């Protein structure tokens, strides 16, 4: 049995489906040769206008990608400056270092996932001790149209690994100048006393080496006298959700308690009278609970939202 075959079987990419070794190898080659056929295209509306294409892998490809993530990609060390897609690292960990700073520079990478190439993904896998044929197969299994698909479970981890050298270079450059730097996916944040033009020029130069560029429309320098937000979290003092977002969330909980979930959803125009009312109400309450939990990740000692979480749990039990 050759090294490629032994390695592929050892990686257990299908999650022990009970197939023969020959069938498992045959299915892997078929899947890697035609991975593009196993995606569903989903168009999502962006919060501030425009659309985003998400490529959702089917069950078979998603299973393989999840096992690549668990058995291969999770073994790589990550840069400490990269804060997204890391177990046990909530989004507040990206905002916390930028609290109470004189200025914050926010930069965004243009078309982040689409701009990461097949070759860059191949180079990530080639850092392992896996046979060359296996490296190539894993790359095909994780790419779509020679790029990184937004929606595949492997893409976030691969993007962090592609950006690892960039993160270390810009991170060390910033540390030498007393600048705080973090990156959350395609959002880069810099804080402290610095010349913004100098930072942007340095970033542009390092990104160009990766074939990446800045989205100039999203570049933003914020002084301490204005609201400073980092990945949706206000950081002028301690990390906190914006006042209007907190108020809106409190009001939603209050209206559900006062008028009932169904009446509240109907008033918002979010209720389908011909559908399953119980399922709609339950789904809404779980989503509301998730938003409250997210806020409590940012500020765990917020008593008002601790109580709001208890109230939503009671409503879920009542349903």
Automatic annotation (TrEMBL):
GO terms for biological process: defense response to virus. Signal peptide: none annotated. Coiled coil: none annotated. Residues 25-235 form the Reverse transcriptase domain. GO terms for molecular function: metal ion binding; RNA binding; RNA-directed DNA polymerase activity. Keywords: Antiviral defense, Magnesium, Metal-binding, Nucleotidyltransferase, RNA-directed DNA polymerase, Transferase. Transmembrane segments: none annotated. It holds the Pfam family RVT_1. Its EC number is 2.7.7.49. InterPro entries: DNA/RNA_pol_sf (IPR043502), GrpII_Intron_Splice-Mob/Def (IPR051083), Reverse_transcriptase_msDNA (IPR000123), RT_dom (IPR000477). It catalyses: DNA(n) + a 2'-deoxyribonucleoside 5'-triphosphate = DNA(n+1) + diphosphate. It comes from the Bacteria. PANTHER family: NUCLEAR INTRON MATURASE 1, MITOCHONDRIAL-RELATED (PTHR34047), RNA-DIRECTED DNA POLYMERASE (PTHR34047:SF7). Belongs to the bacterial reverse transcriptase family. This is RNA-directed DNA polymerase.
């Amino acid at each position: 049995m050759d090294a490629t075959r032994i390695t592929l079987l050892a990686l257990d990419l299908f999650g022990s489906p009970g197939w023969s070794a020959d069938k498992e190898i045959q299915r892997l080659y078929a899947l890697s040769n035609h991975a593009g056929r196993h995606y569903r295209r989903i168009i999502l509306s962006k919060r501030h206008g425009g659309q985003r294409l998400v490529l959702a892998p089917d069950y078979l490809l998603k299973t393989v990608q999840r096992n690549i993530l668990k058995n291969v990609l999770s073994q790589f060390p990550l840069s400490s400056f990269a804060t997204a897609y890391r177990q046990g690292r909530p989004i507040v960990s990206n905002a916390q270092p930028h609290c109470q700073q004189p200025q914050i520079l926010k930069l965004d990478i243009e078309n982040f996932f689409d701009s990461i190439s097949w070759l860059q993904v191949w180079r990530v896998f080639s850092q392992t001790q896996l046979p060359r044929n296996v490296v190539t197969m894993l790359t095909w299994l994780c790419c779509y149209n020679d790029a990184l698909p937004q929606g595949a479970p492997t893409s976030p981890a691969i993007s962090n690994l592609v950006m690892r050298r960039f993160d270390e270079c810009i991170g060390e450059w910033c540390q030498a100048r007393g600048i705080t730097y973090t990156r959350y996916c395609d959002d880069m944040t810099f804080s402290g006393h610095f010349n913004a033009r100098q930072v942007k020029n340095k970033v542009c130069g390092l990104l160009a080496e990766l074939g990446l560029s800045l989205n100039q429309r999203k570049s933003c320098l914020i002084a301490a006298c204005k609201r400073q937000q980092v990945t949706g979290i206000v950081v002028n003092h301690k990390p906190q959700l914006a006042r209007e977002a907190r108020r809106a969330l409190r009001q939603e909980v209050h209206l559900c308690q006062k008028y009932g979930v169904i009446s509240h959803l109907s008033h918002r125009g979010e209720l389908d009278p011909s559908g399953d009312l119980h399922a709609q109400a339950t789904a809404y309450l779980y989503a509301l609970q998730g938003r409250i939990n997210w806020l409590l990740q940012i500020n765990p000692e917020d008593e008002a939202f601790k109580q709001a979480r208890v109230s939503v749990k009671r409503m879920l039990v009542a349903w």
